[in-house]
Amino acid sequence: MKKITQLICVLLTVASMNAQQEKGIMGYTNWLNNWTEFKPNKVDYGEANQILAGNISVNTKLLKKNIYVLQGNVYVTNNAVLTIEPGTVIIGDFETKGTLVITKGAQLVADGLETDPIVFTSNRSMKKAGDWGGIVILGDAPINKFGNVGSYNLDLDPTMTTYGGDNVASNSGILRFVRIEFAGKKVKGADTFNALTLAGVGNKTVLENVMVSYAGGDSFGILGGDLNVTKFVSYKSVNDDFKFSQGVQCRFFNSLAVRSSYFSSTKDGSRCMEVRSFEKKSETDFTKKQTLVVASNITMVNDSENINADIQAGLVKEAVYVAENASLEMKRSVISGFNPAVLLDSKTEINDANLKKIKFEEMYFNLCKGNIFTEYNSNNEDLESWYGNSVFFNVYSQSDNKETFIDIFNPKKPDFRLQLGKITASSGNR
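Above: the chain's sequence. Below: its structure in token form.
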């Protein structure tokens, strides 16, 4: 009888933990352990002994025993597969803006291990955001531009950087247990690289456990395609953490964005999540699918120790921005420490059709100065009334981050899961 009672207690405890960890990033253990690094500028990765440069046109494997320096624009072409062993270090060259481009039809198989991740980092002694270019993966999945073709230019070879097509299930390889640090270099007279660009990438591509830290541009730029994304981490990006555009269809799960009031840019367009259907309306084919992001168990947090003071000083902006014609369905996610939590494009009319395309359900809005607003409009009563309806089960709180999350200020192994009991707060608590 005693054993049965003990078993029931264990089952009840597990059920309780499951119920209470269902908002934000989730798991019985902290899945950030082992493979992430929150102080990458303190790590000595050693000196490079191999050079990666020019075009890679045949199947090639990078080995853990070597340290590689990525010099200039390196293209994987001719349907070749670039395979990287777990534990391999690739160092982006500052002087030549090292950038790795996986062209359409080629593959990157960077399949690290939790205990042996693959690392892309900077070769500067004092590492800073934007030291090198980044990783660009180009596929042949659909985009919503006319002709179903786009080009990711900046200062890259335009003949090598086309993407888009009709293959929803295209396979650009594997990115798993990978870190990308200090990427996102500014190109003179042009834009800034994303740390990781996924353009026209299809749903056979494996995208799991990827951490971008200290990106000079966006951490993750996702342009069109059809993707399943899980356990992505963006840490202290200068620009957007996750940017979606060009008709992407994305299932986005169990991922984390951490912003800093004193590191992230305060300019327009610097957010945890930006959901757009296009950059230029004139290039967009509205007969094609527009951007749809279905996001669940996402945690977005400003890690400031004094959010209210930073908001008052104008250092904090919105966490999520949804532009016209785009759809976002967000569930069981946490937004903590922003001003406001969500901003809708001023061109988005507040009507039944648009509210059905922009959903927030079972959310935990915490420590935000306002929850959901329309751009340039300080009156959000209609939106508060709509999303505050009990049918959506959204929770509102004003708890300090230290009390809200398990241990986000641990320098070695931070834990961004909600503390047990936090999400049982009354949904009427505003």
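The chain has five helices and 32 strands.
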